[in-house]
Design brief:
single chain, about 325 residues, alpha/beta, seven-stranded mixed β-sheet, elongated, disordered N terminus
Length: about 325
C-alpha cells in the first residue's frame, strides 16, 4: 500500500513540475494534508466530490494546490501518519473520523483542522460549541448520538418480535460508540428490547461475537460508523446472513454488500463542505469562526432481497418511507 500520493482523481496524475509554466513554478503552491482511516481507493467517491468542489472554486490541483493523502492502514499507524503530514508543513489538515481527528488534535493546536465523519464533536470534546467552535478546529459532523435510538426503532419495525439488540463496535477505533450505546440503551425499554454491547478488537473476534448474538432469541445487530467494521463489511454481512440475524447499518457500503438496511447521512456531502471550508481558510478565514455543520439529509435504504432471505415481511409504512429499495 502506498502511503503517500499526490493525486488528482478526476483529472489524472498531476502535471510534473518540469512541465509547469514558468509563472506557475514561480508561485509557491498551497498545501493541504488529508488524513483518513481508509485508503484512497476505499474513499474514492468522497475524494472525487472533494476535489470537484476545489476545482469549481478555481484551484488547480497539482499546480497551485497540492494535496497529500495519507491513511492509517492496517494496525494503529495513525500517529505516524499525522507526524508525517505535519512535517510536510501543510496550511490545513482534513481529518476524517473520530480516531484520526483525536490524533491530529493531540499533535497540533495551530494548524487549521477541518473534520468529516465525526459524530457529535461537542460531546466528544473536540469543540466547545457548534456555532463558534473557536480554536483551530471546525468541520462537518456525521451524527448526533441520539440516532442510536432511531436505528433501534427501525430495526424493531422490520423485526417486530425483536427482543435483544446488540451494538457491534471496536472500542479502539470507534471510541464514540460508547455514546451510541447509551442512546440505544435509553430507547430500548420503551420498545421492549434489551440492549447489549458487542465489542470486538480484532478481526478474529468478529465471527464468534456475531455468533454469540445470534444465539439469543429474536436478536438483531446495530452497527454505527465504525471504520474497523466498515473495512470488513463483506465478512459482517456474510455472517449476519448465514446466522439469520437482521442488522441495521450506519454506512451505505454494508447494504451495497448485501446487508439488510441502512439509515444514515450522506458522506459525500461532508467532503463537499470540507472543500468549501478549505477554500475559505486558505483565503484567510479562521476555522474557529466557521460553524460546525450538522447533516440535514438522511437516507433509509432497504435491501428487499436480504429481507426475503431472512424471512422478514417488509411493513408497508417502512417501504413508503424508504429512499431506496434494493431488489
Amino acid at each position: 500500500m502506498r502511503r503517500r500520493e499526490f493525486i488528482t482523481l478526476m483529472g489524472g496524475a498531476a502535471t510534473a513540475v518540469a512541465m509547469w509554466p514558468l509563472a506557475a513554478r514561480a508561485q509557491q503552491p498551497r498545501r493541504i494534508g488529508v488524513l483518513m482511516s481508509e485508503s484512497m481507493a476505499q474513499r474514492a467517491p468522497e475524494l472525487v466530490a472533494f476535489e470537484q468542489v476545489l476545482r469549481s472554486l478555481g484551484w488547480r490541483l497539482g499546480n497551485d494546490l497540492q494535496i497529500e493523502y495519507r491513511w492509517r492502514g492496517a494496525g494503529d499507524h495513525v500517529h505516524a501518519e499525522v507526524a508525517a503530514v505535519i512535517a510536510s508543513a501543510p496550511e490545513l489538515i482534513i481529518a476524517n473520523t473520530t480516531s484520526v481527528l483525536a490524533a491530529v488534535k493531540q499533535a497540533t493546536s495551530t494548524i487549521p483542522i477541518v473534520f468529516t465523519g465525526v459524530s457529535d464533536p461537542v460531546t466528544q470534546g473536540f469543540v466547545p460549541n457548534l456555532t463558534h467552535p473557536g480554536g483551530n478546529i471546525t468541520g462537518f459532523a456525521a451524527y448526533e448520538f441520539s440516532i442510536g435510538g432511531k436505528w433501534l426503532d427501525l430495526l424493531k419495525q422490520i423485526k417486530p418480535d425483536l427482543a435483544q439488540a446488540a451494538l457491534l463496535f471496536n472500542p479502539d477505533t470507534s471510541p464514540q460508540s460508547k455514546f451510541y450505546m447509551e442512546s440505544v440503551a435509553a430507547a430500548a425499554p420503551t420498545m421492549g428490547v434489551e440492549a447489549v454491547a458487542a465489542p470486538v478488537r480484532r478481526e478474529d473476534e468478529i465471527e464468534p461475537r456475531i455468533a454469540e448474538v445470534a444465539r439469543r432469541p429474536n436478536a438483531g445487530l446495530i452497527l454505527g460508523n465504525d471504520q474497523f467494521l466498515t473495512t470488513r463489511r463483506d465478512q459482517v454481512v456474510r455472517l449476519a446472513a448465514r446466522l439469520r440475524l437482521p442488522a441495521i447499518y450506519a454506512q451505505r457500503e454494508f447494504v451495497e454488500a448485501g446487508g439488510l438496511m441502512r439509515y444514515g447521512s450522506f458522506t459525500a456531502e461532508q467532503w463537499r463542505g470540507a472543500a468549501i471550508y478549505a477554500d475559505r481558510i486558505l483565503k484567510g478565514a479562521k476555522p474557529g469562526d466557521l460553524p460546525v455543520q450538522q447533516p440535514t439529509k438522511f437516507e433509509l435504504v432497504i435491501n428487499a432481497k436480504a429481507a426475503r432471505e431472512l424471512g422478514l415481511e417488509l411493513p408497508m409504512g417502512l417501504m413508503l418511507r424508504a429512499d431506496e429499495v434494493i431488489e
